[in-house]
Amino acid sequence: MSSGTYEFDDRGRKLFKPDVPSFPTLDEVHDLLDPAMASVREFDRRLGAWNREAAVGRLFAGLDAVHSSAAEGSTTTFTDLMEYETSLRIAPNVDDAAVVAAVADAFQEDAGDGLEGLVLRIHRRLFERARDKMVAAGAGKLKTRANFVGDPEFPEGFFGYTSPSSLADALRNWREFTLAADPRTSELLRQLLSHWMFEHIHPVPDGNGRIGRLLVPIVMKLKGQTTMACTFFGEAVHEEKAMYFAALKDGRITGRMTNYARQMLAFVRATAQANLERMDKLQALEAEWKSHFASFRSDSVVHRLVRYAVTKPVFTVNDAQAQLGVSYAAANTAAQAMTRAGFLAVPEDVKRDRLFHAEEVLAIFDRFRPQSLQVR
Ligand SMILES: Nc1ncnc2c1ncn2[C@@H]1O[C@H](COP(=O)(O)OP(=O)(O)O)[C@@H](O)[C@H]1O
Ligand SMILES: [Mg+2]
Question: Is residue 130 included in any domain, yes or no?
């Protein structure tokens, strides 16, 4: 079975143009499809039930952005992102953190003006501030030159993505497939197959992986499959990068999407399950904090700071004060109370000594945190 065609460009290079992939049969995937969809729906439901003005969704979007970007070589950890998103805007690598923050923000995008427009808007978000002037100038634009990935199975050592001259046609096929609605096929499967197509087209010079992993949740939401854009799989891809690349490639080589679809469903399920566990831990932690302050006056700012710190695990007094609409002194007193309780800690280095860290919240999200920094 063929998964696409090879075209030769004017320099004689072989460039791949994917066909619309065929769906695996249901009996080839149903053992993974139902659990994956059930986990995503449960995660979506929990996010909706505990929305907090979208702050909870934002926290999980940040985590997916960190992992999806780490799979591409970014070094920004979840804690780094949280520090960057305070008014101090600090990070070990500020440029890198800015792009991860842009990925996290992009989950709020929608495809109102069409899919190609969405792709280019996300691409602009990611690259418009690039230090490399050429890269910044190309932000929000389709590629004009062929792009490749190393592949020892080709005599030239490279696999070539879709030719710039075939982009319009390839993207039209991709868009029609992605937006099609057929009640006989699973929408999750359709979007995962759409991801396979998108990655093989590789329409922009860079960022195709991160953009492709944003499109699945955004389109799942657009299609009414979830209420939030939460069909994440960045974490699983980060963990099993080689398997992800191999699955993408397997679909192209065999022309059969079964292995690819199974791998991706397993990724979606694993990521949703990990997030459901985090949600449990986060809610238990909030309950513990609340009960600690149960004897405080009901109008004490500390109660509101507890709620705030659960979804904003790094903040300055100024951040908290602005968000809660209280005086600096009141926010500071509440932060000190939480610090005395052991729920907040302030890093000792001079660059970060205005930041309060809710270490237990960070420990729930940040798997790459050194143990010594964790409170318990
Ligand atoms: N052999 C392959 N065939 C198809 N797609 C691939 C292959 N290897 C990697 N990819 C896809 O390309 C992405 C990397 O492309 P790139 O444009 O650099 O995106 P990013 O900058 O976000 O990493 C990977 O995340 C993956 O989705
Ligand atoms: Mg890249």
Answer: yes
